[in-house]
Amino acid sequence: MKKLWMFITIVLLLAGCGDGHEDAAEKGTETKGESGRTLTIAIGTDIVSFDIHNHNNTSTEAVHDNMFNYLFKRDENNVIQPELVETFDIIDDRTVEMTLKEGVTFHNGDPLTSEDVKFTLERVAADDTLQEYPNYKQIKEVEVIDDRTFRVITHEAEPSLFHRLSRLGSGILPKTYIEEEGWDNFLANPVGTGPYQFKEWVRDSKIVLTPYENYFEGVVEEWDEVVFRVIPENSTRVAELLTGGVDIAVNLPPADWERVAENEGTSVKTETSNRTIMLILRATEGYPTADLRVRQALDLAIDNKAITENVLRGGGIPTKTRVAPGNFGAEESLYNTYDYDVEKAKQLLKEAGYPDGFEMTLHSPHGRYLQDAEVAELIAGMLQAVNVDVRLELMEWSNFVEMRQAGENKDAYLIGLGNSMFDGAYSVDWYRSDRFVGETDYKNEEIDTLLEASAVNLDVDERAKQIQEIQRIAAKEVPHIMLHQETINYGVSDRIEFVPSMDEMIYAPAISRK
Amino acid sequence: MASYIFKRLGEMIPVLLIISFIVFALVFVAGNPVALMLPEDASQEDIDQLTASLGLDQPFLVQYGKYLFHLVQGEFGESFRYNTSALPLVLERLPATLELAVAALVLAVTMAIPLGIWSATKQNSPVDLLAAGGSVIGKAMPNFWLGIMLILIFSVMLGWFPVSGRGTLGHLVLPALTLATGLAAEITRLLRSSMIEILNQDYIRTARSKGMREGMVVYKHAFRNSLIPLVTVVALQTSTVVGGTLITETVFSWPGLGQLLIQAVHTRDMAIVQACVFVIAVLVIFMNLVADVLYRLLDPRIKYE
């Protein structure tokens, strides 16, 4: 008996010990601190890695954005501006010469040189095991002219080069540091040129950054420490915000908007994301949706506004294009608008030979996008009004991806598509006839011709017109039924000034105390 | 006893091999992780290229053979998600999960023992009925709901404990309580029935007839004899507690194995899933062994063959 109690006592003591070193930063209320100069952001998933070329994750990039710089960066109006580059010159269709800004250093003190740029871009352009490889394989080589001048040479004429160099995966890495200390050391102690430097990463718990004193644009003095806390559960993130444990909580679920807005000291901030929710229709011969009139009828039967106002509680903007304003080549006349006419839809179905409607299958992921299952259910209900019976298949994301890969999708599936390039060309490429053979089988020769021409067109205005024309054709042909552009929603403490951005980055230097 | 322990440890090897095969097969059947690594608009060519680069296009047996070859050398392979060795990642999380699981077990036993004894000695009294009702509710409440309710009451409304994270003793209270509630309910019921049975034994009547104080009868004779089933159920519940950490750790952002495993399953991160299950299996088998050894300490009549 005594032994048992001894065992229990030992276990109790062990349980009480914990890791004392973690307590100060972990404790939520500490974020208010003595000076309140710690910015705490609750993110839903942990970062994947500090290998900027081997992830495809927005929340990871939101952390990296504070530590690394791109050669170019989009400003608050989504216009691409030089960031690490001072000047650039387009030499020919495949070559751009750039000169780096003077005085840029990495967090370990090494100066930024053309060799670092060559090392970074050639790595991601050559290593096909990296997740960002598909977005940079267009780069053939980087030719170093001198310490600050280099040339980026592409395989073909590359109109999207500046879009590529201003996004996820294009932060510049320290060549000497990585070569001398090794990758493993870099991944454990990452070094960039950004305004904040790495302090600590406790996996699935927190990432801590501190200001870099020699930042080339001047040290950021607003925050002594920026802490990204990993809180996967929505309700826990909200509770942390309400109790002052965090300053920003990402991905606020609609059910909590009112609670956060009404709570003293917190508010809800929203911004349009660059993700559009749509139904991809199957144009394969034999499916009712192969008929243009059926596709148009389904589009007309869906009340986009009812979805955004009721299911999303205002968290979406109806659209007829997935190239939203802020992206290159956006056709703005198709944005913030929709067509809804049940009688016309019935008439079109009658003309197409379906006076009594038909049965169709709609696949939808469950839990991937804002209220996705509820949106799909509402659409099924709306289509019932034109006598189209929808068999709704709600699927776990990984099963959904496999279904698509295997070409087992039926009449329609719901998906949300983003565009990290902010280049409309990448959105409209989904209409290319040889891209989804066996999956959607949509073919339009006029679109194919325009896509081919825009892919190598370096005339900015002409290329924008080509992309806009494709959107206008697609709006009439309805290979995809556009539903809405999603919003991103944050719960924000009233003690800070934070303006969300469309690319979902959380850039600490742009956040201030009130 | 040493030879018995060595024999039991030896038996772990085939069990762990079988577990590794089952988990490998299940994750393999679940599909290609590359589809989840690339964005929605990745082309089939990009998916095929990365699949081949990671060796995931090879037949099942080839992949399993390679995995086994590395496994016997103590390597679980690289995590697709984190691009680093899986085992150190898992071992890094183990202390957090152990801390939570041990705290929950201790809390559950601490709550259950007085309640179970009280219920047994005061059968059908209001206390007994209350404990019985409480046990049913405690067992029926799902962890995720209970966790969220505890956060709402004790963190948001009362502000007594931190909402989430790990660090101080205060951070441990709510997740441990969440995990302990169901277990305490089960132990209370078991201890009650076991005690009632023992309190009706002849030797208890003899003890009472000798004029022994009721407290001594209950604690020295009845409770001590109830310890064997108690230890059994606590040891067997280890797997339930570790299983419960999956949800509890997610709700409370507790950076342990559970949270890691959930993420790995979502992203089909084969190496992490394998390493997590392997470590949990070792833990559960080890706890069963501890229980067997404890039997001997509690009842010297039990012999090991």
TrEMBL record, chain A:
| Sections of the chain in a coiled coil | none
- Name the residues that span the membrane: none
Pinpoint the Solute-binding protein family domain residues: 80-434
Q: GO CC terms on record?
A: ATP-binding cassette (ABC) transporter complex; periplasmic space
Domain of life assignment: Bacteria
The family assignment reads: Belongs to the bacterial solute-binding protein 5 family.
Which of UniProt's keywords are assigned here?
Signal, Transport
What protein name does the entry list? Peptide/nickel transport system substrate-binding protein
Q: Name one GO molecular function term.
A: peptide transmembrane transporter activity
Biological process terms from the Gene Ontology for this record are: peptide transport
From TrEMBL, chain B:
Keyword field: Cell membrane, Membrane, Transmembrane, Transmembrane helix, Transport
Where do the ABC transmembrane type-1 domain residues begin and end? 94-291
Instruction: Show the InterPro entries listed in the entry.
Output: BPD_transp_1_N (IPR045621), MetI-like (IPR000515), MetI-like_sf (IPR035906)
Q: What membrane topology does the UniProt entry give?
A: Multi-pass membrane protein
Q: Nuclease: is it a keyword of this entry? A: no
Q: Could you give one GO CC term from the UniProt record?
A: plasma membrane
User: Which CDD domains does the entry mention?
Assistant: TM_PBP2
GO BP term (any one): transmembrane transport
**Residues annotated as transmembrane:** 12-31, 100-121, 142-163, 169-191, 227-252, 272-295
Localization, UniProt:
Cell membrane
State a single Pfam family of this protein. Answer: BPD_transp_1
Primary localization class, coarse: membrane
Q: Which PANTHER family match?
A: DIPEPTIDE TRANSPORT SYSTEM PERMEASE PROTEIN DPPB-RELATED
What is stated as this protein's family in its record?
Belongs to the binding-protein-dependent transport system permease family.
Name under which the protein is recorded: Peptide/nickel transport system permease protein
